[in-house]
TrEMBL record:
InterPro entries the record matches: Ala_racemase/Decarboxylase_C, DAP_deCOOHase_LysA, De-COase2_C, De-COase2_CS, De-COase2_N, Orn/DAP/Arg_de-COase, PLP-binding_barrel
Protein name per UniProt: Diaminopimelate decarboxylase
Domain Orn/DAP/Arg decarboxylase 2 C-terminal span(s) in chain numbering: 18-362
Listed CDD domains: PLPDE_III_DapDC
Residues the record lists as N6-(pyridoxal phosphate)lysine modifications: K48
Superkingdom as given in the UniProt entry: Bacteria
Domain Orn/DAP/Arg decarboxylase 2 N-terminal: 30-272
Keyword annotations of the record: Amino-acid biosynthesis, Decarboxylase, Lyase, Lysine biosynthesis, Pyridoxal phosphate
Top-tier EC class: lyase
Organism: Mucilaginibacter yixingensis
Molecular functions per Gene Ontology: diaminopimelate decarboxylase activity
Pathway where this protein functions: Amino-acid biosynthesis; L-lysine biosynthesis via DAP pathway; L-lysine from DL-2,6-diaminopimelate: step 1/1
Cofactor: pyridoxal 5'-phosphate
Amino acid sequence: MFNSGIVSRFSQLETPFYYYDLGLLRQTLQACQTAANRYGYHVHYAMKANFNEKVVSTIQSFDFGADCVSGGEVKAAIHTGFDKNKIVFAGVGKSDKEINTALDADIFCFNVESVQELEVINELAAAKGKTARVAIRINPNVDAYTHHNITTGLEENKFGINTWQLDDVVAALGKLPNIQFLGVHFHVGSQITNLEVFKNLCARVNELAQWFEDKGLEIKVLNVGGGLGVDYYQPDTNNVADFEAYFKVFADNLKVVEGQEVHFELGRALVAQSAALVSRVLYVKNGQKKNFLILDAGMTELMRPMLYQAYHEIENLSKASEGSHIKYDVVGPICESTDCFRKDVELPESFRGDLISIRTAGAYGEVMASGYNLRDKIQSVYSE
């Protein structure tokens, strides 16, 4: 991602900032599109992963759909030029205002997570003389084997409708005239690297789709969500996710009848590797037991390590990797002890002013930045 010319350019810029490699982003999008097209699959970009305007515009140019989880994301998708017929709106707590925004935009589908939500959407659609298209998000009780904070498909999670509630869903669908049932929706979690999880998901989708068909409800859309993970440990070696293997799992295991569409909602896998957080060393504190690199970026710029104990590769861009290394706790300036990117990171001996790169920060990085401690808003720099 970084050559001497890029590092020289960085040395002239104020830090911290997010650096986006738009060439790598396009390479990733092309790989996903090619693999999905092989099977006629529909891909919606999960806007929550990164809504940097230039990043989202690049994704839209590849004719992906948009997966939104707020009214603001629906508005952003429309503003960026996403086809309204490719916009889906998920989320366990859609407000009336957000639902009305999506109804006014005439989006493709609401992914509905409770019977009560079905009733509210029906009421709001009726008031506008509209019919809302919906897919029912079902909790499949499939373990994603990922961090508990980003697992969403188990019975103890707040997301989706549990299987024992499905009879109530069918009853509600039969008496809500302003609802059009399209199909079923699933999402089991994020940063999934074990493809067996998706094979297990396919088995549940097959079973539950057949259950709806047996109830006389035609399934037009099978939305299997997203969750494909990326390699945080080797961002240069594996900088594009294996979309071919991912989609093949569904091609081999998902039962699809003529006329049905298969939809995906990918976020992290499309954008994570395309960005790094670039920071400077403010101070070096050497102790008897610990050495600290104190950066000008902190949890206000990248929350993942503090929130999820997430791993990110950390590099000193100002020093060659050869020679003696020292272990540092790489920390930020925020007045919280949790403001630590990683502990005991082996780096070349580092000094005040050195440029530090925190890799694979394109997903859930910039979008989660905050103004805590009245910090300045993080800036973005692009490869072109």
